[in-house]
Amino acid sequence: LSAVSARKVQKQYSGERGVLALDGISIEIPSGQFVSILGPSGCGKSTFLRCVAGLEDITAGDLDVNGKPVVGRPPDGIGMVFQRDALLEWRTIRKNLLLPIEFAKKRVSEYQDKVDHLLELTGLQDFGSSYPRELSGGMRQRAAICRALVDDPTLLLMDEPFGALDAFTRDQMNFELQRIWMETQNTILFVTHGISEAVFLGDIVMVLSPRPGRLMEVIEVDLPRP
Ligand code: ADP
Ligand code: ADP
Question: What ipTM did this prediction achieve?
Answer without folding.
Answer: 0.74
